Structures are given as C-alpha cells and as structure tokens.
Amino acid sequence: MPIDRTSSAPQGGAAVPPEEYARLQGRITQVSRLATIGEMAAGIAHEINQPLTAIANYARASEILLRKSEDGKADVLEALQEIEREARRAADIIRRLRDLVRGQPSERAPADLNGVVTEVAELLQGDARAHGVRLLFELGEAMPRVVVDRVQIQHVLLNLTRNALEALGEVPSAEREIVVRTAPAGAGEVELSVTDTGPGVAPRIAGRLFTPFVTTKPNGTGLGLVSSQTTVRAHDGTLGYRPNSPRGACFFLRLPARPA
What we know:
This protein is α+β, with helices and mostly antiparallel strands. Helices cover about 50% and strands about 15% of the residues. A hairpin with a 2-residue loop joins strand 4 and strand 5 (about 190-195).
C-alpha cells in the first residue's frame, strides 16, 4: 500500500505534509522505473543491436554493389530504404526508453489501451527472448478508450511483465509463457492483465503483495508493486492478483473506461 498521507512519523514525530508525501511517492516511482529498465538491459541491448546490425549489413552491401557495377542502382536504392527503416526502428526504441525513464509531470489524455500496450511490445519481446520465454499478446477488439498517462501505465506493464519473467526462472524452458491481455471488464472498466505459467504466489505472501518491502526476489526492493499500485490508484483504477489456472499467477489492473 502507498504511504499514508496522514500517518505520524515514528516516536511521535510530525505528520507527513501532503507535498512531502507527493515528493516521496515520486521518488519511489522513479527508482522503481529505473530499476525495471536496468533489469531489462539485456533484452533492450538485443533489440537495439538488431537494427544497428542490419544498418551495417545494408551499408556494406550497398558499397559492394556500387563497386561491382553501375547497373545495381535499384538494389542500392532498396538497401538505402532498408537502412532508413532500421534507423527509424532503433530511434523509436531509444525514444520509448527516454520517455520511460525521464521524470516528467503527469500528462493524461484519452488513449486506446491496446495502443498503449503495443508501443512497448517490442521492448517486452526483447526481454522475453533474453529469458527464453514465449510472450503472447491477446488484445481485445473494440476496446473502449481510457484517460491515462501512457508512460505511467506502460511502466506498470513493464513491472508486471518483469515480475512474471523472474517467476519463470526455474520453470522448464518449454513451459515458460506469459500472456498480456486487454479486455472489457464490465461496470464501465477495462482490464489489462499479465498471466504467467510459473509457480504462482505462496499463500503466506499473497495477502501482503502490495505492502512496502515485501518481495520474493533475492535482490528485490519490494517497491515495484507498491509503486504500480500507487500509479493505478491515481488513475482511479485498481491493481490486483489472482491465481492462474492450472498454475501460475495473474496480475491485473482495471481502469475506468472513458464514456463514449
């Protein structure tokens, strides 16, 4: 749970002022965001290396074609077009990373939840491949729009997916699977969920998942889910957990749909 706005400091100290509470929450969110990106480093490096390698290969091929013959103009033009496409791809990945890690004021706007997911799908796939995990996307059709800060919700999705990847560490490689879903949830809400085929959450931990400093990771801070819950609550939504069947865990967030 997030820090209590009105709670007193230990040993009878003064209550936390609202502005100090907001600053602390912001710091926690930023630390969690940077930690998540750091944990994704291997997958991110792979995703950026792919277009850079393609650019180098196409440039080399263009040079060879130009040296061999003047009749290869069409092939060279095609190679240059591929270089431009791959360069844009690398630039998009870097832009998304920049947006995810920089601290900035919340900017909420009507958005397609499926679009919010697909913007970071490439980063998620790179992280999944680095862990030998099959990652699937099952995005609902005709989804109602939501009013969100896209970067904040994407950070929640990254955090939940990272948790799922780590939960699959001791599962046989052929059984490692994560599904990211979007669907209407009824009662004027939409749901974004991350489901894995890991060992699930121990009952002794399940009731305290959203408590600060509670973690199942050997080197975890126990702040990732707390930060995510704070973000979702600020969007008038809910973040929750339910067991997956036949095994595994499902973390989900529900957000109010924007009236048509």
